[in-house]
Design a protein that fits this description.
Length: 471
Amino acid sequence: MAQQDVTRKLTAILYADVAGYSRLTGADEVGTHKRLGAALDLISGEIEGNGGSVVHYAGDAVLADFASVVAAVECAVAIQHRLAEGNAGLPDDKRLHFRIGVNLGEVIVDRDDIYGDGVNVAARLESLAEPGGVCIGGAVHDQVEGRLDLAFEDLGAQEVKNIAKPVRAYRIKLGESSAKAPPPAGGSAAPQQEIRFCTAADGVGIAYATVGQGPPLVKAPNWMNHLEYDWQSPVWRHVFAGLAKDNLLVRHDQRGTGLSDWEVEDVSFEAFVRDLETVVDAAGFERFALLGISQGCSVAIDYAVRHPDRVTHLVFYGGYMRGRLKRGSPTNVEQEEALTTLLRVGWGQDNPAFRQIFTTQFIPDGTPKQIQWFNDLMRMTVSPENAVRLRHTMNEIDVGRLAAEVAVPTLVLHARDDAVVPFEEGRRMAATIPGARFVALEGRNHLILEDEPAWPRFLEEVRGFLGSGGG
């Protein structure tokens, strides 16, 4: 009998349970059961209202998962506030007090249920919470600190039942606000993005985000996207926040990654272009500028040739027309075979050693914090299986003929010592697109970092190009 494939995903897990339920039912079985039913209805409504899904109920416990860590924590806090309001008019011996744990971890998906250490840790965090309280894991805390007006108490590393390694835990101080840092001098608070969903022609759900004000600038997706984690990341945030100062920036998670559907049959280049069409139509834009980074440049070229009447400008950074296996180098073939093996074997492991190989290519000059974020981002963004499938598609890209048909003002920027996409590929792209302007940036990073000299030059060039009408 063939072994069934195991589906895994990284998700935010919420586990809620009633404190002292057996004691309450012993004193008043019927009344406690009725109050539990009302509480579970309230909890379910909050979960669904915050974009989560109830996985199952087990007596007085609820298990739910969320694509968004922020939404999971907001939901947990809202549940406790609403339950506290409901308890206010009841005597102490009639009140139901839930404990809630929230964890970010990998789970095994089997039919309509989820299993694994990700769920087990969420349950252990719930047991560490006080009645009426919320306890979150270290990874959850790292994602929401500074983004939600909440105060936290660090409980340190906790030894918990049936979990091999200690679990870092934090208690949310309900009713207390965090001491938020003031906005940067001379500027307003950072803009907040809004995430929505649309559906591609083949039924795949695509997540997209909008942020900022001004003429629309749409970013084509690249290999690894996650709308939430990219927005928080010290690798990406400065890029998106900088572009959103003058434009309404629109990004989406490529199918198979981030908040978009992971279980997809079609990960072809054609599907990438169709998804871009879907997002643009959902956003309601008639004309807009199009941004491509890395693989996204090829997708943007194809879209611009299909829809020249809708694209006002093209901005490309670190891009290419030809995938690695279309560049005619035997070395590329050998390297790609080795990297594919690493993807399959090591991508999903807790130890980041395998992913570190890719990180050092993408941001060789990254700080320790940036490197750690990128290591974690890769695992959160895409499964090992989808990473391999998407990379195979990217390797076979060839839009050289289409590039010669581009009839849109185009700016091409490329780092001289890019460790992922050779400088020559960017130069070749600029030479092929009629009238394209080429800017060489100093640096080795494939993803441009905030603390390198190339960043202000990049921003200046892009703003000038978009603001001048492309001339």
